[in-house]
Amino acid sequence: MDPYAALRFKEFNIFLIVRFAMVFAWSMQFIVIEWQVYSLTKDPLSLGIIGLMEVIPAVSMALFAGHIVDQKEKRNLLITCIAGFSVISLGLFLLSWPGLEDAWESKTILYSIYALVFLGGFVRSFLGPTIFSLIALIVPKKIYPNAATWSSSTWQLASVLGPALAGFSISWIGVHWSMCVIFGFSLMALIFLFQIPRKPIMNPKLGEPVFQSLRDGLKFVFGNKAIFGALTLDMIAVLFGGAVALLPVYAQDILHVGSQGFGILRAAPAVGASITMLGSTRFPLHKNAGKKLLMAVFAFGVCIIVFGLSELFWLSVIALFLSGAVDGVSMIIRQTILQLKTPDNMRGRVASVNSMFVGSSNELGAFESGVAAKLLGTVTAVVFGGCMTLLTAGTTAIVSPTFRRLDLQKDIDEHEKED
Q: TM segments (predicted)?
C-alpha cells in the first residue's frame, strides 16, 4: 500500500493541520494547568481531581453526544467544538493573569480552574466522535488504515510538542503567556477548518428517537468482539497505567529536574509513539493485530514499572519513551479496528463509546493515580498500576483466544473490493 495514500487528498491535509493545532493546544493546556494547580496546592490528589473534573461531563454526555454527531453535519459541529474550547482557553488565560493570586484566594483560583476544566469535558464529549466521523467523509474506505495511521501520528506529534513547549514556556514566559499561546493555536484550528466544505449526513435514520439510537449503538459495540475486546483491553491498561498524571510530583519532588525536565518527561512517551506511528505507515500492523496489541499492552506495563522505580532522570526518560512506542502500536491497531468495522451511520455513537472506554480512562487513570499516590505513596502507586496492566494483558491473552487470533487483512481486502 502507498504509505502516502491519504496525504494525496487536500482536505485530509487540512484536516491534519486542524487536528494538530487542537491536540497541541489541548495537551499543552492540560500540562500548564497541572503545573499551576500543583504549584498552588502541593497535593498530588489535586492532580487527580483535574482528571475527574473533565471525565465526569465527558462520560455522562458521551452517548448523547454520539447520537447528536450521527444526526448532524460534521464540519459545522466541529467548528462549534473548537469555538467552545477557545472560550475555555481564554478563560484560563484570564485566570492566570499576573497579580491575580494577590487579589484572589488560592482556593478561588483553583475552583475556577476546575470549573473551566469541567466545561471542557462537555466539549471533549463531542470533539472525539466528530473528528472520528469526519475522517470517513474525507477519504475512501480502502485507505482508512493509512488515514487512521496519519491521523494518529499527527495526534502523537502534537502530543510531543505540546507538553514539551508547555514545560519550556512555563520557564521562559510563565503560565499566563503560555495560556495565550494555547488560545492562539485554537484560533488557528478554527480558521483552517473553514477551508473544509460541509459534508453530507450519512445516517438514514435522521430524527430517530434518542434512546433507540443509543440502544442500537451500544448493542453494536458490545456485539462486535473485535471492537469490544480492543476497547476493554486499552481502557484497563490506560486506567491503571496512568503514571503521567504524577509527572509533576516526579519532576519537582523525586527527580528534582524543574519545569524543563518536566516538559522532557511529559513529551517522552509521545516521542516514542510518534516514531512508532511514522514507521507503521511503511510497515502496517493489521496482520496478527490481536497478538501485537496484547504484546504492546504487556510491554507498556513493564515500562511503567521501570519508570516508577527509577530515581535517575535518563532512565525515567527512556522508560517513558519506550512506553510511548508500544502505546503507539496499541493506538494504531485500535483505531484501525474501529475504522474498518464501524458502519458510516454509527460512527458517532461508536466513537462516543470509545471515548468512554479509552479517552475517559486517561482522566480516570489520573484520578486513580492521584488517590493511590495519596494513600500508598507516589512510587508504590505507579508500580501498582504497571502490575495491573501486566495482569490485564496476560488474562486477556488466556481467556480470549478469538481476540488473540484477530487479523484485519480480510477487512482491508473487502473494502478495496467495495471501492
A: 12-33, 45-65, 77-97, 109-138, 150-170, 176-196, 227-251, 263-281, 293-322, 375-399
Its pTM stands at 0.71
Q: Grid coordinates representing 317?
A: 526518560
- Structure-block grid coordinates of residue 372: 493511590
Q: Does residue 154 have a pLDDT over 60?
A: yes
- Is the distance from CB of 255 to CB of 316 less than 8 angstroms? yes
Which among 371, 363, 361, 359 has a CA at the least distance from the CA of 114? 363
Q: Which residue, among 147, 319, 331, 159, has the nearest Cα to 233 in the 3D structure?
A: 331
Residue tagged 478554527 (cell numbers): 190
The CB-based long-range contact list for 254-259 (8 Å cut-off, 24+ gap) reads 254/311, 254/378, 254/379, 255/311, 255/313, 255/316, 257/313, 258/171, 259/35, 259/167, 259/168, 259/170, 259/171
Is residue 214 over pLDDT 90? no
| Residue 262 half-sphere exposure toward CB, CA atoms < 13 A | 27
Does the structure show a pLDDT above 60 at 418? Answer: no
Task: Answer yes or no: are the C-beta atoms of 325 and 276 closer than 8 Å.
Answer: yes
CA distances to 15, 22, 116, 166, 330 from 57, rounded to whole Å, are 26, 19, 12, 25, 26
- Cβ density class 398-408: b for 16+ within 10 Å, e for less: eebeebbebeb
Which of 207, 61, 203 lies closest to 128 in space, CA to CA?
61
Q: Is the pLDDT of residue 14 over 70?
A: yes
In the numeric block, the cell 482491508 is attached to: 412
Listed residue (297, 304, 298) closest to 247, CA to CA: 304
Closest CA to 43 of 304, 240, 260, 253: 253
The three-point CA angle 40-42-48 to 5° equals: 95
Q: Is 406 helix (H, G, I), strand (E, B) or coil?
A: coil
Return the H-helix or E-strand segment holding 80. helix 74-95
**How far, in Å, are 24, 230, 319, 328, 373 from residue 10 at the CA level?**
21, 31, 37, 25, 47
Helix ranges (DSSP H) in 105-255:
106-136, 144-172, 174-193, 210-223, 225-240, 247-249
Question: What are the C-alpha distances in Å from 372 to residues 240, 301, 364?
Answer: 10, 17, 12
Nearest to 117 by CA among 60, 185, 49: 49
